[in-house]
Amino acid sequence: RAIIIRNGEVIPMSSEFTPETERQRLQYLAYMQPHLLGNEFTHLEFPRRVQRKEVGKRMLYRDFNMTGWAYKTIEEDDLKFPLIYGEGKKARVMATIGVTRGLGDHDLKVHDSNIYIKPFLSSSPEVRVYDLLQYEHGPDDVLILATDGLWDVLLNEEVAEAVTNFLPNCDPDDPHRYTLAAQDLVMRARGVLKDRGWRISNDRLGSGDDISVYVIPL
């Protein structure tokens, strides 16, 4: 995720691409090219995994052209594993991967099968343009780029507050002040080791993911 902090204001510069946010794109691709599912997956989404005893009964479902839910009568094909399964951080494409955009991974397959996942991973990036000449920028106005290890545990506003409080306490002529601010964010997301594991503010769990942070002056 990328955000800009300008005069203490948070300006989002990216949006997350996850199996949940790209559900309709993934389902549409599977609908148009069902052979990509290897006869093991269904492109339809259900609130939970369908069980055999529910064949013939009615259950909520979503197709690629639906934002809301509707009812359908469960058929044998609906017993296949869903193309997108799980919620939040646990959402997976083909029960394997939690991202929907990327480069490479051409040989990535569903475990113990010959079903390729690559067709569902888009290499098209999101592009946003920010005109540096359109605004006046002070020494504490920055672009923050970080992996989800940071954003899983800290809100945009919490990150912005931490940086806007940290930078003024640094020597304005110190070229390492932005590196130190990035390190401060990493430590905040990791937390401190207590009896019940790594904890951050308000006794919340610290990040269990890798944490990489850039703080770039504008």
From TrEMBL:
Pfam families to which the protein is assigned, alphabetical: PP2C
Record-level GO cellular component terms: mitochondrion
Domain PPM-type phosphatase stretches: 1-218
InterPro entries: PP2C, PPM-type-like_dom_sf, PPM-type_phosphatase-like_dom
A GO term for molecular function: [pyruvate dehydrogenase (acetyl-transferring)]-phosphatase activity
Name the record gives this protein: PPM1H phosphatase
Organism expressing this protein natively: Leiothrix lutea (Red-billed leiothrix)
Name of the gene encoding the protein in the UniProt record: Ppm1h
